[in-house]
Amino acid sequence: MKQELEDWRKADKWVEQLISRMIVSYVGESPAIEKQFLGGEVEVELTPQGTLAERIRAAGAGIPAFYTPTAYGTLVHRGGEPMVYDRQGNVVKASKGRESRIFGGRHYVMEEAIHADFALIKGWKADTVGNVVFRRSAKNFNDPMARAARVTIAEVEEIVEAGEIRPEDVHVPNIYVQRVYKGTHFEKPIEKLTIHGHEAESDLDPVKERIARRAALEFKNGMYANLGIGIPTHATNYIPKGMRVFLHSENGVLGLGPFPEENAVDPDLINAGKETVTVIPGGSFFGSDESFAMVRGGHIQLSILGGMQVSQYGDLANWMIPGKLVKGMGGAMDLVASHSDHTKVVVTMQHTAKGRHKIVEECTLPVTGKSCVDEIITELCVFQIDPLGGLTLIELYDGVSVDDIKKATGCSFKVSPDLKPMQLIDILE
């Protein structure tokens, strides 16, 4: 498996050298693209993942543009997002600002559809007239992309006669597919093989475990939740027995279960972090466009994600350090834009980074969202955030004083009159 993955990455690097411009949401797992971007060899338009999915879907539906709450107040909306660097690391081309409007008292950003001449999609099965079926979590962007192109070419593992796929089982109707061919040599390398009981040792760090144990108290029975990579995902280890939480993954899964046993690993069943997973009874699969419709529509009740900086009024920065670190925003801008009475946004992070404040008056890094964070959980304390009133300290870890928090925090805050010891969920035996 390791050799297959290395061969795949080499081929991927060769393909990358043929690309001059990309519209993507995340390049974090492609060091070659990140290096080429920062070195001025490729132009990159970073777009929130849900917006990207909707721009593709809109093209297939004949909609030229649409308004979304995602990215309002960020570089995506205001312009100035680096698109091309020179070899010295200077920005030589930046994005232009986008039109915005207010609907129902809320700000929205206009995005244009993305049309394609050709779409290359990977399916599981097709019939001889072009109907396509995907397997498990493999719908992701394949599903909407098939509809957005003038010519869609589907590579599949099996071609059957017309009628052998039941009409109710068709994922992409043949009206969208112009070419189908059966691949001859399939390799499905798993980028992050994750086995139940073999989680990464770093996940067991006592400080991170403390934060995860506090974050786990945010779960409620029957809740729909989305969790970021790292500490948020680790919090699922502490969901009490008997509590059912439907975990949502941006790549099109609802009802994520534990990591699989070694004999149950399936390369067609991964989460948004590319880790192998399972699905609980009652789970479902869908495309990326529908996945982010759930997010924007306020159907996800809890979103927990990491942060580089959080401001005193709830602005979040967690997606790039200009000129140094360019991972991309992925689905984070979409998730925090869902902040409302229906969706609680919680940031889990260590309180400082190498002695530098991470909770600050104003974010100095490009923001992911404005006034979007409801709560911050660190190893030292818990803050509630009001977009007008700022931070309120509500919980304090044992042995930590309010003065300690003042020294570790880069902005002012209020102390709740009902300040409590930091609550931690019991470790399950």
Keywords for this entry:
alpha/beta; 19% helix; 3-stranded antiparallel β-sheet; 10-stranded mixed β-sheet; 429 residues; single chain
Description of the molecule:
This protein is 19% helix and 29% strand. The protein is built from 10 helices and 30 strands. The strands form 9 sheets. A 10-stranded mixed beta sheet has the order 17-16-15-14-18-23-27-28-29-30. Strands 3-7-6 form a 3-stranded antiparallel beta sheet.
Short précis:
By secondary structure, the chain is of the alpha/beta class. It is built from 10 helices and 30 strands. The protein has helices at 2-16, 31-38, 49-60, 75-78, 142-148, 206-215, 231-234, 288-296, 332-337, 402-408, and strands spanning 21-24, 43-46, 65-68, 82-85, 91-94, 100-103, 106-112, 116-122, 125-127, 132-133, 149-156, 158-160, 179-182, 224-227, 246-249, 253-256, 279-285, 302-305, 309-311, 316-317, 320-321, 325-326, 344-348, 352-353, 356-357, 359-360, 375-377, 381-386, 390-396, 414-421.
